[in-house]
Amino acid sequence: MDLFQPEFLQRFCSTNDEHHYVSKPYKCEIDGDIRSVATDGRIGVVIEQDLGFDDSPRKNFGQAILTREKATVEVKVSELKEFAGPDELTQWKAQQNLPCPKCGQMYSVDCPECEARGEWPHRPGIIHGRVINRNHLAMLCAGIPDKTVKISEPLIVNYGQKPLFIQGDGWYAFIMYVFEDDREDVPVFDGSQIEL
């Protein structure tokens, strides 16, 4: 299964009732063209074609975050996959309304394992100067059909955060920055990078 299949795109959508408006992929206009989008707000994939989804649930939803600048480096997908580690988040999201496997609660306690949201904890990693959740990267890498991808700078800084943009042939994705005060023990992607 790859990024261009609607079933695969569903894994990037929200399973949280509060974010019901991004609970399924949708289409919207970006730069004058119809794009197919799947996002939960922390990670998103944009397919540069209309895959037949319904219109965006909110007018101009995510326009700023879905517009990216020119790529600056090219990296091997195999090295990104190795850095990301296993895709544990997809299985957790598929279980949707089950309690956190660590604390047993759901959205109600201050659990350091599930970040008090009943979600799998993040595994921070640094790519291109941004701290991202490697669980999100693993989920994305599971469907990348390309051998290499490009990393680009954001066009707009959203709420002071600079997401990581990854683009391939006919698609691009963003992974939002996560706040990590102590970067000392956070792994850094050191795969081969070709400057563009």
Keywords:
10 strands; alpha+beta; single chain; globular; 28% strand; DNA Polymerase III, Chain A, domain 2; 4 helices; two-stranded antiparallel ribbon; eight-stranded antiparallel sheet; 196 residues
Write up this protein:
The chain is α+β, with helices and mostly antiparallel strands. The chain has one domain (6-92, 122-195): DNA Polymerase III, Chain A, domain 2, CATH 3.10.150.10. Helices cover 13% and strands 28% of the residues. The protein is built from 4 helices and 10 strands, in the order αββββααββαββββ. An 8-stranded antiparallel β-sheet has the order 1-2-3-9-8-7-4-10. Helix 2 packs across helix 4 (134-141). The model has no long low-confidence stretch (mean pLDDT 77).
The radius of gyration over CA amounts to 16 Å
How much helicity do the residues have? Answer: 10-25%
The biggest sheet, with number of strands, parallel, antiparallel or mixed sense and barrel status, is: 8 strands, antiparallel
Number of domains: 1
Mean pLDDT score = 77
Instruction: Kindly state the number of beta strands.
Output: 10
Topology as H/E string? HEEEEHHEEHEEEE
Multimeric status of the protein: single chain
Distance between the termini: 29 Å
The CATH architecture classification is Roll
Low-pLDDT residue spans:
none
CATH class: Alpha Beta
* Beta-strand content bin: 25-35%
What's the name of the CATH homologous superfamily? DNA Polymerase III, subunit A, domain 2
The largest sheet has its strands arranged as 1-2-3-9-8-7-4-10
Q: Which class do the helix and strand fractions yield? A: alpha+beta
- From the spread of the alpha carbons, the general shape counts as globular
